[in-house]
Amino acid sequence: VQAKAVLEGPIAFTELHLYFRNPEPRIREGRFAVTLPDEAALSRFAMENEGQWMEAEVVPKMLARRAYEDFLHRRQDPALLEKADGNEFSARVFPIPANGEKHLVLSYSQELREDHYALPLRGLPRTGLVEAQVLVLDAKGAAHTQALSQRNWKPDRDFLVPTSAATAVAGDLVALRAQVELPAAVDLVSDATILVDSSASRALGYREQVAAVREMIAALAVHSPELTIEVAAFDQETVSLYQGKATGFSEAAARPLAARPPLGASDLGQALAWAKSKARKRVIVVTDGMSTAGASAESLPALVRAVGAQRLDVVLVGGLRDTALAATLTQAGLPRAGAVLELARGPAEAARRLSLATQTQVPISVVGASWSWPTHLAAAQPGDRVVVFARLAKPGPVTLQLGSARVTATPQPVAGPLLTRAGARALIAELEAKVAAESDRDRKAKLRAQVSELSVKHRVLSSETAMLVLESEADYDRYGIPRNSLSDVLVVGPRGVQLQHRGGPVLMATPAPAKRPVAGKDDRAKRKVASRERADEGGAGEASAANGLTEVLSEDDAADKESKLEEAEAPASVATGRGAAAADPVAAAPAGAPAAAPAAAPTDAPRPIAPPPPPPPPPPSAESVSRPAPITQNRRLAERRPMEQEEKQGPDPLTGELAKIMAALRRKQTDAALTQAWAWRNRELGDALALIGLGEALEAKGDKAQAARAYGSIIDLFPARADLRRFAGQRLERLGNAARALTIDTYRRALADRPDHLTGYRLLAFALVRDGKLAEAFDIIERGLQQNYPGGRFRGGDRILREDAGLIAAALLAKEPLRAKELLGRLSTLGAAVDTSPSTRFVLYWETDANDVDFHIRDARGGHAFYSAQELPSGGELYEDVTTGYGPECFTIPGTPSAGPYRLSINYYSQGPMGYGMGLLEVMVHDGKGRLSFDARPYVVMQPGAFVELGSIGKGGAVIAR
């Protein structure tokens, strides 16, 4: 990692150079997440290609995502950077060459509210070389440099650089750091509920966090000797761990809190509902503020008010946090406003601040300014600091009115580029505050459009935009991304921040020629392409193109047929994450060798999952009624012979720690498997596969609550990843009622984030069906059928959703027959009809893009349906062969299944960019009278060519355990 920074008054600019090494002999996609300081404003994201910089453009977020994914499917060179939750930013880069490296630059500016600059390093894995150089302009205008250089270092501290300059001026724009001077009014804590975040994102440093909480409580007892408290841990559940005097919260009393493993998603809403039942005067929440499950950020203030306390405070912990949400909670409308505090400043300081009153709506103004921001502090305590921006009518000393205090200072002249960009970020922050406060949907939409427009104009990333790198000018033109007013980029030069002019075109890389099939795979690849060509002749592609992407995306199908002959080049992921606490799920092994240049090395590819344990009891059998469309005889059974030979010779889908855990579970050595799973989890805090292994072992032990926390941890570590949210939901599906609310919540959030993913509608709808919410489920499927999708994606999805609409309508009419006229009209509009026939459906999902998981169905009579023979002679049809990622693939048996047992399996035909396949096989039985029964079978597979058995279904649709 290389970092260069410049400090100009209360503004800092940081330029990070990241080098990702791919140690494998195949192309891989890179994913990484970076946690930046609060209020950081990203202004540059660039990717080096053959010695030239390909600069990202700031574009609307959804357009950026679609363009990136289209280029990913085409094996071209896109890069995408977007704001995730809190102060985290996530990026995707493709390709990282085989046995090569990718050089990226990430730049951001930030306000310095404290009298020092901090480069966050603590928590990074051991790195070959960490270099940092910081140029500081002091209060007298003199420049000096501080540097850091460490080799083979696992950072145990951040790099701190003091700065004395508190003002900066360039032209008529000024920035000023000021300290709040207010009378210190006492507000002692006499009775408190203390909620301590024990979710998965708190795993790094959790024991230190618990120790600091104990010290804070001891310091509170000094201020209030009679203080009584109740301490509870919260994540996706809340557990009380101590009640009594604060003076009694000793090291022994804190042990249950320290012993609680940090797992699960963070559901502040349910924690607040729990606190309401305690009816205490004060609520203190120790958290990172990242609410990844349950109530939305918009609905949390009402839940705070419902608690009935006098005051709520938030004590922030960890580097990844959502300060804005924390502030919203403390100012939600309780009788007294709370404070947002930092535990890192010391437990005693947090206790002192908790014992002080907080003033609200403290006004801020700059004398003689035509504009200034912020205009007030919503809540403040003595000693708080704020950075104020203003445009002055005339040069000279600046007078700031902060509450009742007045501060006058002579600003230090600085070069214009950095301060100008910081001023633009302040304008965007002002608009985003208006968006948050606006309740009218139309006005909110207009404000969001203004945020996007300003963000693009000033090249500053916002909540409404992303940064996108494409290969050429023509590529930007295809997507309607104008580049006729390119903003110059900020870079760190020898004397500080300077503008780098952008005038030349983006250079287009020449794609490498496609490789021919590897030996032994030619026949199978040809069969696969021929199968797709037969499907194309029948007009199978039903998904419509969206938002002007028709011309670009409609070429994807033709390219996909050729991609089957390029299997050797199918990429997997390279990843870095949130330090040790949240590496990407594809990062399951130690990092590869560092690059010769300073490098953040990518981690090795992950390990696959074994078939899931025996499923729950069988659903009821279906009655025998034929479907209207008869199934034709399968005349291609001979094609299955080479396929079955490949299955016998295919690689084992299990490797590494997970293989050992699943082998122990198969031997019924549950305790040994659980011990090994906990050890793996504790070594690899951010490894999603370690969490899967732990969940599997806990399920086998019969501990569904802790298994749900293990799977919920995936949500907490990757809240901005719709694919991983859905995957976590698919794991939670198997736990049934114990995790239904969290399952629905994560599907709902995933769909809100990616409404262009067809599978999200179906997963949410049928989760609602299982929860008895049939009307809402029908609404969701209806929305899914009305949504436009990228051309060439989700083949056959429209047919599946139309049939789903008929099934849900049948279930709804069985309960509410008076709605028949309404539902029949809506179904007619959708091109669907009520389904009155019994059927058994097997629906396959996978949560990886640009790859191919094949579905295989065999009956007891020797029939075999798969991509090249999509019908069983005994009855049943595989609708489509989806080769572009995600699925769904559906196999339907009309009437009562008569050729059971049916053996179900998957084959990882093409690995794709995510490294391993992960998803769900859903078995759904309809009795023809509106009763639906389900069985969930989640899976993960890594090895290309591997087969995974997913159990059997007996005659009549009965589940058969393996």
How would you describe the shape? globular
Helix percent reads 25-40%
User: Mean of the pLDDT scores?
Assistant: 83
The poorly predicted ranges are 504-522, 530-641
Under the CATH scheme, which class of the domain at 191-356? Alpha Beta
Number of strands: 41
Helical segment tally? 24
Helix vs. strand class: alpha+beta
Strand content: 25-35%
Instruction: Tell me the CATH topology of the domain at 191-356.
Output: Rossmann fold
Distance between the termini: 49 Å
Which architecture of the domain at 191-356 would the CATH scheme give at its second level?
3-Layer(aba) Sandwich
Largest sheet: 7 strands, mixed
Instruction: Provide the gyration radius in Å.
Output: 29 Å
CATH homology superfamily name of the domain at 191-356: von Willebrand factor, type A domain
What is this structure's SSE topology?
Layout: E1 2-8, E2 11-21, E3 28-35, E4 41-49, E5 52-55, E6 57-60, H1 61-73, E7 79-83, E8 88-96, E9 101-111, E10 116-119, E11 127-137, E12 143-153, E13 159-162, E14 167-170, E15 173-179, E16 191-197, H2 206-223, E17 228-234, E18 238-245, H3 255-259, H4 268-276, E19 282-287, H5 300-307, E20 311-316, H6 323-330, E21 340-342, H7 347-354, E22 359-366, E23 369-373, E24 376-380, E25 385-392, E26 398-402, E27 405-409, H8 416-437, H9 441-458, E28 465-469, H10 473-478, E29 489-493, E30 496-500, H11 522-537, H12 550-553, H13 556-563, E31 572-575, H14 640-649, H15 656-666, H16 670-683, H17 688-701, H18 704-717, H19 722-733, H20 740-753, H21 758-770, H22 774-786, H23 797-815, H24 820-830, E32 839-846, E33 852-858, E34 864-865, E35 877-878, E36 889-894, E37 902-910, E38 917-926, E39 932-941, E40 947-953, E41 959-960
